[in-house]
Amino acid sequence: MAAIKLVYIGGGSSRGAGTMASILSHGKEFDGSEIVIQDVNPDRLHAVETIARKIARAQGLDITITSTTDRRAALTDADAVLASFRPGDFAARALDERIPLKHGVIGQETQGPGGFFMSLRSIHIYEDIIRDLDAVAPNAVIFNYTNPVNIVSQAVTRFTDRTIWSMCEGPIVFPKTVLTAAGLDPEKADVVMAGVNHNCWSYEHTYEGQDLMPLLDDAWEARKDDPSLSVHAKRMLRLATTMRSVPSDYFQYYYFREEVLRELQGARTTRAEDLLAALPGYWQHYEEQMRVDVPELDPARSRGGIHELELAIDVMSAYYNDKSARLPVNLPNVGGALPGFDEDVVVEMWCTVDGRGVRPLPQKPLPHAVRGLVQQLAEFQYLAAEAAWKGTRADGIRALAANPMVPTLAVAEELYDEMAYAHRAYLPERLLK
């Protein structure tokens, strides 16, 4: 079993307790390891550390768990860095979602203007993390869950020599939306997706060994007027049958833009505002679990459930324990593994992970009907990463204007200036000029 030093940056978040529970559910794969939980809030760090240590003790694990607000001290001699943090917390996300709606634009916290500004904030922190790693842990591998994972990875891989593998469960969970909407059993399907994070499509899709599309066609005809089917499920089923490919759920923001925009503008609260209202309940639950001998996290009272960042842990375990696994990872398209995308563009695809690292499995091109939008999103990702790492206001506006959700240059300029001002405490000065 791999004995490593793992540093969890952002471990004091509302997902921290669930993530530690997830890591410890794989504890025997990491016996003898040291885990350092790092964040900026000492009280919440203490809560997560206390819960984690009690879980580890109850499971009889040989894992040392500590916490600190000192990031450089935490990273010293690290083997692995698990990064999942949100600069500005949910209050910043609320601005990412709310401000664009004033301009008739969907904010979307990972792929829209909201995601763009989150990338500016996240990558600003990453610059400091990279400096710390270069100084105290030159060989550490970054396992990234900080959003937007594609833009973060694009910046780090393009402008540094660090190894960073970013993860998202999307290619695993997105097919379930369409399959369930069609009344099919996801366990009987084999759907292989690729693209850029949160915006991938299937290039192979079978059900019990046969082409999935005729079954989706039949389901759409039978269920398109079914009132029991949610609006979102109906949209995804319709999109799959029209484009002849299984989509990411996030494509609703492009192919059903006007409907989704009206829904968001008419809603009383945004998703971030709902989460802000729920946060006290999560922390109350964690405080309760701190006081018991054997914590048992309630999925209904834990942010994101109790098995957070599971995919990153699977990748980490396969790598450090040298056990081959087939998993989706975001990494540069070296060798043109995914046809139609530049070699230095970070793409999301199924890979083999083992002690030698992460290597893409053979990929097929995305269907022509869907490839163009994904390529446009990849170009936006490339520009956004450049603006975040070394750009100015002009670079930021150019990137934002390339985002498919932003309709005109004037809107890009207005959005950029208002959002940059709102987030100025979390941005470098060069992006405000």
TrEMBL record:
Q: What does the cofactor field's note say?
A: Binds 1 NAD(+) per subunit.
Q: Does the keyword NAD apply?
A: yes
Q: Which domain of life is it from?
A: Bacteria
Secretion signal: which residues? none
This protein's cofactor list reads: NAD(+)
What does the UniProt keyword field contain? Glycosidase, Hydrolase, Manganese, Metal-binding, NAD
Domain Glycosyl hydrolase family 4 C-terminal: residue ranges: 193-406
Q: Where are the transmembrane segments?
A: none
**Family to which the UniProt record says this protein belongs:** Belongs to the glycosyl hydrolase 4 family.
**Protein name as catalogued:** 6-phospho-beta-glucosidase
This chain is encoded by the gene named: licH
